[in-house]
Backbone:
């Protein structure tokens, strides 16, 4: 909604709509499969899963899988299963993340852990992951299995890494990029790469889509980081500073800290490490980000990865899906620029 | 140690030693692989993993995988990887279990969650699961992947099921068997079934080993349930009643409740659902179990599944491994009889 409003204002923005339109038919099948596979005789499983699945994420990852298969003329049914598995892996990560972050809200709704407890979040996450792998095995493609199991291992490693760097103001730009590469970009990369795999394309094409996904994931996350601090100047301010209030150390904070004076660093340490993050502190944080151009530079980095995502698709033949995937990159970045 | 002491006393008991001896050489390779694959640049991962892996479990599951491959003349190296993956899956389950049970001790040591927090337990569990699947994919056997991913899904479903039945005294015998079938027996079954798969044996042999594993798992769990209440009459008493104090509803409790008077049921509800489980309550619980022969009947059920495990292996050709697997069943049951 933020993006749409901004886009309407500027009227020059990229849209996710072409991707949505191109995958609309397939996404109906994905949604049906999601409902079928999150069903269980154990009552709590569909309850928890549906709570999260129906809470209105953009479903960017499964749409990418669908487009990345169709753009190479794939006309089987495995892309539906893969898209479902990718969304289940993502949902499982969110459920486990909420336990780890001790999060109370996600997408404006209470998190599963607040309603059903940590236990259910851990176990339903495990259940969705188990279902995802069972379904992927059913497809019978060892290459798809390799890509997705590798992503699962990288995501988990990234989560532990984040736990170690979280609340540590000395986290470097490079360390942070490593974390979001594992936590966010790895699944985008896998979601894109499985498309050419089931379409029977060669390694060069696989790499192109994998690189597209990685770069898109990094651009997406950095744009998100900037977006969280950039709503203050208009009426969208109520969502500003969520990361700040949760003490999440993201790129704008890392840049501000690295460029800050002794006093400023003390402020950041108090805010992020010791939890002094009231509204006055948020004002100060926004002022320091402006002073050091931290948001501008985060957006600049997002654009850099966006360009990499464009370049990755350059060698591929023209198609509606290719155009839609390229516009999706611009859309992710346009949310904040 | 409990078993060894009892065995020495009676001098007629079965031993796990033949299985240990037959798999000793392979287990060295498994242990090396475990150490290598729980390594990570992220410091916390090997710390947490090693804490649990080195805490002295019997490693029954990987030994079963090794024996179940070797008994069919398998002479490749995949059984080592599979045994490692099975142990990682088991360890991941323990880590997530501890978060779910809010457990403080496991095998007499502090649980990972007490030392590193819930977060690390959730995420390192995910990491080990991710590593396990990456390694299994590397073997390239879709049949092994099918069996193990199916087990992962069943285990997760079983955990959620247990969450729903936990603290509910009305849990029936049948419901409880369904839970332990999913939580415990599914992994024993998968651990045994992958042996004949990589050895290239037919479906009948696969089923035989799968059935052996399932029955052994059920026998093992029921024996464990009884063991937890049966140390009072000798010097092993300090470990008696752990399940009781944790409010875990196991078979002896279910039988005692089902057979109890109104007053007795009130006692069980207070103890298990409301947490009144001091030493005096434990004495009462033991008395009621004796009165209703709940331990005897739990042991009787364990023996029944033990016999099923024996029968499953009956059609197979003779081998040292077969003998060792059969004696392992008897060993699991002999711990309490």
Residues:
């Amino acid at each position: 909604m933020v993006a749409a409003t901004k886009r309407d204002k500027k009227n020059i923005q990229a849209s996710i709509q072409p991707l949505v339109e191109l995958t609309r038919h397939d996404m109906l099948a994905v949604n049906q499969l999601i409902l079928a596979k999150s069903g269980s005789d154990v009552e709590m499983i569909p309850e928890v899963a549906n709570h999260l699945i129906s809470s209105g994420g953009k479903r960017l990852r499964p749409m990418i899988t669908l487009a990345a298969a169709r753009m190479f003329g794939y006309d089987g049914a495995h892309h539906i299963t893969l898209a479902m598995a990718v969304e289940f892996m993502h949902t499982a990560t969110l459920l486990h993340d909420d336990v780890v972050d001790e999060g109370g809200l996600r997408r404006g709704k209470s998190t599963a852990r607040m309603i059903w407890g940590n236990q259910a979040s851990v176990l339903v996450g495990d259940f969705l992951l188990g279902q995802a792998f069972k379904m992927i095995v059913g497809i019978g493609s060892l290459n798809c299995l390799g890509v997705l199991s590798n992503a699962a291992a990288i995501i988990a490693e990234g989560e532990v890494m984040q736990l170690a760097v979280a609340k540590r103001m000395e986290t470097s730009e490079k360390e942070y990029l490593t974390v979001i590469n594992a936590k966010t970009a790895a699944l985008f990369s896998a979601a894109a790469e499985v498309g050419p795999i089931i379409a029977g394309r060669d390694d060069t094409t696989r790499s192109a889509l994998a690189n597209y996904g990685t770069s898109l994931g990094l651009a997406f996350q950095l744009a998100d980081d900037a977006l969280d601090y950039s709503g203050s100047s208009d009426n969208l301010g109520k969502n500003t500073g969520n990361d700040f209030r949760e003490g999440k150390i993201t790129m704008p904070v890392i840049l501000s800290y690295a460029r800050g004076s002794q006093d400023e660093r003390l402020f950041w340490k108090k805010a992020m490490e010791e939890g002094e993050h009231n509204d006055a502190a948020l004002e100060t944080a926004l002022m320091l980000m402006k002073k050091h151009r931290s948001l501008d530079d985060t957006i600049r980095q997002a654009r850099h990865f966006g360009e990499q995502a464009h370049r990755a698709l350059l060698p591929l033949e023209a198609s509606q899906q290719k155009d839609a995937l390229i516009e999706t990159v611009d859309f992710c970045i346009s949310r904040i620029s």
Notes: The longest helix of chain B spans residues 112-139. The radius of gyration of chain B is 20 Å. Strands of chain B lie at 105-106, 109-110. Chain B has a mean pLDDT of 87.
